[in-house]
Amino acid sequence: MTDDLQAGAAHASVPKEPFLFLYITHRCTLRCQHCYMGDRLDNEIRMSPAKVEEILSGLRVLYGQYKVYLLGGEPTTHPELDGILDVCRAQGYKTVITSNGLIPPKVWPVLDNDRLDSFSFSMDGARRETHEAMRGPSTWRPLLRSMDRAIAAGFQTRAIFTVTTENREDVFAAIELADRIGLEMLSFHYFTPTGLGKDKPHLQIPPAAWMELCQGIRRHAAGRRVRVFYPPAFATPGQLPEISTQGYGGCTARNLERLAIFPDNRVYICSAFFDTELHYGTWRNGGIVPRLVRNTSELTLVSKVAPGCRSCSHASVCGGGCAAYDHLQRTLVSSECDQKTIPICPLWSMPAEPADTAHRLVDLR
Description:
This protein has 365 residues and is an alpha/beta fold. It has one domain (15-291, 346-364): TIM Barrel, CATH 3.20.20.70. It has helices spanning 3-8, 10-13, 49-62, 81-90, 128-135, 140-152, 171-181, 207-221, 240-245, 298-302, 315-318, 323-328; strands at 19-23, 67-71, 94-99, 118-122, 156-163, 185-190, 227-230, 234-235, 258-261, 266-268, 281-284, 287-290, 342-343, 350-351. The chain has a twelve-stranded mixed sheet. The chain has a two-stranded antiparallel ribbon with strand order 8-13. Helix 7 (171-181) links the parallel strand 5 (156-163) and strand 6 (185-190). The two termini are 32 Å apart.
């Protein structure tokens, strides 16, 4: 393959991330401002261990999945969590619990090292005031206690921080806190107006300000023990080569990399669509049945390319930006790209220190 062809085929050579997200329950005691789950939280349905076993065994064959994130709602409220964790282990999956930290005391004995590989906690501030402004009262101290307990028990432990205009001032302090308490990873997410945050566009950080903040994250994370990841979300032409080197392969939904399955059997491939009726398909009879009502689903939408992208020299790296944003008319849509501020998939993240990649959590990010 010539150098030109190699550069143009970047998406064909990058490693895929076969993450599986199982939303085992919709039940949650919180209603966070920015939660992408939307009205689903009012419908308290859940998966059975038998359903989880059917999904895990099938997807390992179909797509090669070997890592499963258990989410909700709040997954630790599931009355059969122990059975679900046993199924995950029996099926040979690396298993991550994503929790808000409000873990009932009776559940902790279920969360042992023989069943679980990692904890992922939602932390939306470095101070009680900031975190609780996003997640509600009396949520900060229980979160700190849960993170301390998971770390002390030897679990791989990370925190996820969704950055908005109202908590961005805590970003650098959050890096310091994560380093101080012994988290192995801090992963920043870029807020987009979906779910309960759909009517809160003021929480979204504009592209230029986000790009500046990302540079600050890189500087502040330098030399620390904790590993810090962030989603570039937008890039200048000069930043695209590094993003490509770090493994960016375009829209993760287009590649079917991050399947999300809900208790109602709906299968989504992009969290931007979670609060819509545009799901990719349905889990039925041991497999995924694609949905093609009126020829419209997530997959048909994210597979569209804006006309301006077809003649753009950057398109082979950016992958045409975010087609979900184009359809939903949110953030910087690809059809408005000026080729100076280039939108990329906001679900993809990269390490703040690319030179230091030896870390046991990288495989679970």
